[in-house]
């Protein structure tokens, strides 16, 4: 094999590698767009969440100073304590932040 033949084989090899990389890049971008569109249309409409009570009430969570992990008080407007606990647990799980590091000021039901 001559020098020219060796250069041609290596250039063809480089061209194939770059072509495959470009195809993979386009495929990943296409997947990102399709999956982004699919998850955006699955969103929950917050207006369909039941409030559970007609009037808003406020519940204050007592501050636990001795244990050192309380973030203060929490105002609940139109939400019972069980629902608020579930909302806080879901936010903690989805954001992958420990519940002890989150600080909730108010949870309000939207009619």
TrEMBL record:
Keyword list, A-Z: Membrane, Transmembrane, Transmembrane helix
| Membrane recorded as keyword | yes
Which residues span the membrane? 6-28
Share an example GO biological-process annotation for this protein: sodium ion export across plasma membrane
Cellular compartments per GO CC:
plasma membrane
Give the Gene Ontology MF terms in alphabetical order: sodium ion transmembrane transporter activity
Q: What is this protein called?
A: Oxaloacetate decarboxylase, gamma chain
Q: Provide the species name.
A: hydrocarbon metagenome
């Amino acid at each position: 094999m001559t020098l020219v033949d060796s250069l041609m084989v290596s250039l063809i090899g480089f061209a194939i590698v770059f072509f495959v990389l470009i195809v993979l890049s386009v495929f990943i971008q296409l997947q990102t767009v399709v999956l982004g569109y699919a998850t955006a249309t699955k969103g929950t409409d917050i207006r369909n969440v039941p409030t559970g009570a007609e009037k808003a009430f406020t519940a204050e969570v007592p501050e636990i100073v001795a244990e050192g992990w309380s973030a203060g008080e929490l105002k609940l407007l139109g939400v019972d304590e069980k629902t608020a606990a579930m909302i806080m647990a879901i936010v903690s799980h989805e954001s992958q932040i420990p519940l002890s590091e989150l600080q909730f000021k108010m949870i309000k039901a939207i009619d």
